[in-house]
Amino acid sequence: MIQIDGSFLEGGGQILRTSLSLSALTGKPFKIENIRKNRNNPGLAVQHLEAIRAIAAITNTKTDAKKGDITIEFSPKERIKKEEINIEIPTAGSASLIISTILPIAYKIKKDLKIRIHGGGTWNKWAPSVIYLQKVLLPLLKKAGFKGEIEIKRDGFVPRGGAILEIILHPWKNPPPLFLEQSNISGVFIESVSSVSLEKARVAERQIEAAESILKPLKLEIEKTAKYVEAYGFGSGILICSSPTILGRDIPGERGITAEKIGKQAAMDFLSEVQSKAAVDSYAADQLMIYLALAGGKIKTSFISDHAKTNAYTIEKFLPVKFSLDEKEKTIECKKI
User: Fold this and answer.
1) Catalytic option among 48, 118, 170, 307
2) Could you tell me how far CA 46 lies from the centroid of its own chain?
3) Distance CA 271, CA 268 (A)
4) 20 to 30 Å CA-CA from 308: which of 101, 196, 264, 335?
5) CATH class as words, domain 1-79
6) Is 307 a catalytic residue?
């Protein structure tokens, strides 16, 4: 059984999610100790439990994991056979983190896999938004032949959640290596999403206007979408991404913080990614590492995060690969060993 230290470096939920994905792909059991040991609320949270249950359902595995556990053992009973799964998230926890755990499974499925998620949030602090997965991660993966769709039927905002999502994964066979260097940026896309309860306050438009004021130095054409959606409670978020080099940054709205401040912060973060000459933003780089391990390749990012170092540690436990993380050149390369 693979032994993993859940407090290694970044020491967050990514260690668990990466382990679950790779356990399902390889059939290898694992044990993680010290899960989120250094966090204010150590152990498994609800969204971690739902990721465990999702992979357990896909691999027909029983699990007795519960909230607060700091140790977990997982032994997949069988290789991936499911064609449909339903996931219930009883809180406003991040739906995107659960989706990210499931996406790599496309490498092993023989038929399309349909996932329905009821509950959870589409905009959460410390997690990518679901539209980030739609408009940044999936287009990047498409460069390695990955095929999948994510449809948002209903957005979910903190603290009530209530998202409804449908995801379809297609078999991902014989993927080509993924090599990403920044070419050029000719356009910028901004999407601001708010609950209909905030329409009178023009929250979506104000986030966009604030972001535009920061992005003027780029002198690029900016495509804008302000969207108001039905949701439980109220909330908002903004995503900024570029093309044809795909860089992205997103921020959820937050009680007590103005729409203008949210928009400006997202734009400043995005501008920093553009100025770094990266081919992928630092958030995407972390998420692409499993796919680099499966397909091989090299990517240039804005900086090498502790998330990336932690992911390399975890992936190398499951697969015969070696990562090279060059902090000076800001590149991540993976080769089979």
Assistant:
1) 307
2) 17
3) 5
4) 264
5) alpha beta
6) yes
